[in-house]
Amino acid sequence: MSLRPPRQMVVVVVIAAVLGIGTGVWFAGHDTRPAIAPPLQRPAVAAAQPGDPMPAITLPDLHGHPVDLARFRGRPLLINVWASWCGPCVEEVPALTAFADAQGASGVQVLGLALDTPEGVRDFLARIPVAYPIVLDTPGPADASVRLGNAQGLLPYSVLVDAEGRIVKQKLGPLSAGEIEAWARH
């Protein structure tokens, strides 16, 4: 009795091996996975620059009522973007409050834009009250501060808008007491 496989069996095994190797080589050179669409990119938010009109922004106040920032046109507007958890923001609030109080009915208006929760802002204002209006926004890549030119998304951030609604100045970092008056004179 011979232990050698019949010649036909050897030929079939060789052909199967060649086909298997050939198929492997073909699949290695071809991507057979289903096509997956790349992740959707968020549209870039246009960050305003000095000379640009202030973007159309409507945000809720602490009571949830919408505030259209266009309503401040007619007088210069200093928008201060802050948060209750931001140390430098908290430090500049007394100077901003004093500045706002000194402006009267015809001076520069001050608006606080809090990138914070309503509860965080209410707790803060219970300790350190301010008389100027506060609006709220959720921090993110397209929040109001980014649209107002804060490309880095850092706080505090201030924007000076003229009476016609054009951005005059932008500043990243805290405003000191003496600096606010000089900075607001455009």
Automatic annotation (TrEMBL):
InterPro entries of this UniProt entry?
A: Redoxin, Thioredoxin-like_sf, Thioredoxin_CS, Thioredoxin_domain, Thioredoxin_ResA/DsbE_sf
The membrane spanning regions, by residue number, are 9-29
Tell me the protein's name. Answer: Peroxiredoxin
Q: What's a Pfam family in this record?
A: Redoxin
Statement: the UniProt record of this protein carries the keyword Protein biosynthesis? no
| Any GO MF annotation of the entry | disulfide oxidoreductase activity
Quick one: a GO biological-process term for this protein? cytochrome complex assembly
Q: Where in the cell is it found?
A: Cell envelope
The entry's cellular-component GO terms read: cell envelope
Which keywords, in A-to-Z order, does the entry hold?
Cytochrome c-type biogenesis, Membrane, Redox-active center, Transmembrane, Transmembrane helix
Principal subcellular localisation of the protein: other
Give all residue intervals belonging to the Thioredoxin domain: 48-186
SUPFAM superfamilies (UniProt xref):
Thioredoxin-like
Superkingdom in the source lineage = Bacteria
* Naturally occurring in which organism (per UniProt): Stenotrophomonas rhizophila
- Keyword Membrane (UniProt): yes
